[in-house]
Every structure is written in structure tokens, then in C-alpha cells.
Design goal:
By secondary structure, the protein is an alpha+beta fold. It has a single domain, classed as Phosphatase 2c, domain 1. Strands 2, 3, 4, 5, 6, 9 and 10 form a 7-stranded antiparallel β-sheet that branches. Strands 1-12-11-7-8 form a 5-stranded antiparallel β-sheet. Strand 5 and strand 6 form a beta hairpin. Helix 1 packs across helix 2 and helix 5 runs antiparallel to helix 6.
Amino acid sequence: MSTGATPAVGEGRVQPRVPAPVASGDRVDMAALSHAGHVRPNNEDVYIVLQADRALRLLESNLPKETIPDVNAEICYGLLVADGVGGMAAGEVASRTAVTTLIHLALDTPDWVMLPGQTEGRRILERMTERFRLVDAVLRAEAGRKPELAGMATTMTAAVIVGRELLIGHVGDSRAYLCRGQKCDQLTRDHTTVQDFADAGFIQPGEARTVPYRHALTRALGGTHNQSHPDLHRLTLRDGDRVLLCTDGLSDTVDADAIAVVLRSAATARDACQALVDLALSHGGQDNVTVGVACCHFSPDEAGETRA
């Protein structure tokens, strides 16, 4: 007579299946590079490249081996570039302070979101918005305490890859691009006066590089403008996609077509970064130039097709 009891693991045929990590078999090759350029005495650009892990590692157990994996890990990736603005050393202080503050805010978060999904992605973007706001407040407070830092500000463009989702937060005129196949699309919109004029039809897009006030920002972290909120972007990545973050030291001198050629042809993220920086320097290197690249290598799913 059946007792109605559930068979213990290993005693019957009931074997719970431990799901594979979302990122299992996937790999993101990342690198970044920065150069002061040929004219500027110091480099006010800052970048970070990071990988975050959440893992379960089995040390000992008397459970059947197939019940629990030896290692089960989730991995997410991050890229960020920031371009400081301000007289003397203030721009350098602004970008460095912004990035270190952002990292400390992330480290103080007890529950990192490591899985993709509608709810999870929305939560990451909400946190990104709040952290940008707090960074903005820190910069304004620091400038208020030190007269030599008055008006300091920075751009910031951050990208997080969770599973096969790309989430971007953006303030200023540093950019994010997505290279997919033969296309290279700019994902972010420059927060500049010249971009506002182009959007209104007062100037043609090709004229933007010749406008004297093209670097005037309408939105930044810190500075004298009203409190800035980031633009947010979210999209699904595919196998072979290449994501580029860069400061205007690249985008002001190298057009999207030339950028796309480099991203498509480079064997690794490191090679792409070096080639892009070299290209910017060969065009004069009038500004600091910083690039960060992520190359996505996604494995096929069980149906034999790479998931979109």
C-alpha cells in the first residue's frame, strides 16, 4: 500500500534536474584602452571593464553526483567610459570620482541581479538611474566644497550584459554602438547643443563636426545644469555582436563606417581597441580617446540555433 510519501532523492526515479546557468556556453570577450592624445597634457577619460560572478561550488555531499553540479555560476559583464569636463584638473577629478562612486554604490548593493528577464532588466535599469542620480549629487557636493572644482562634470556611458541582454545608461556625448553583421548603429543620443540643432533641422548631420560649439553639453553628471537623468536602452544581443563604448575623442574624428570596418575585422576585443585608438591618433589625436569593446560569442541552444 502506498504511503503517499515522496521518494527521497536517490531512492526512486525522481531526480530533480538542476537548470544550467543562462550564460552556460556563452562568452564575452572584453577589453578597453585609453590614450591622452597628441595635444592634451593629461587624460580626463576613465574606463572600467568588469565581470561579476555568482556561483555555487559543491565541496562535499553524499547525494548522487548528478543531483547537484560541482559548479553552477552566473556571469554578467560591464563596460563603462567617462569623459571629464572642467578647467585644469577638475575634469580628471570629475570622471574619476564618478566612476569610483558608481563602483562603491554597486558593491554596497546586497542583491546583485545576475539573471535576464523583463523584471530583472527593469530592476537593473532602475538601479542604474538611481546610481547616476547619486553620482550627480556627489559631484555637485564635492564641487561646492572646493572652489577649484566649481562646475566640474563628466559624461558617463555604462553597459551591462546579463545573459544575452544589453542594458545601457547614458549621460553626455560619450557613445555606445552596436555592430551587427554589416551594420554599425549608434545606440545613444549625444546630449549636446549641436545634436539638438541637428534634430531640429537647423544643421545637417554632416555639418556637426565643423560647428565651433559642438562640445557644449546639455546634460552631464555634475556641472551647472539641472540634475541629470540617464537615457536608458535595452536590447537583445546575438552571436557575433560587437558592442563599442567610446568618448568623443574617437567619434569626433572617425566616422561610423570606419569604426564598423575595424569592429568587423578585429580578431579580438583587444585588437579592436588598439586599432580604434590608433585610428583616432592618426586623425590628429586632438582629444583624449577611450574605447571599450565587447565581442559576444553565444553557443547554440538545444535546437541547434543561436538564441536571439
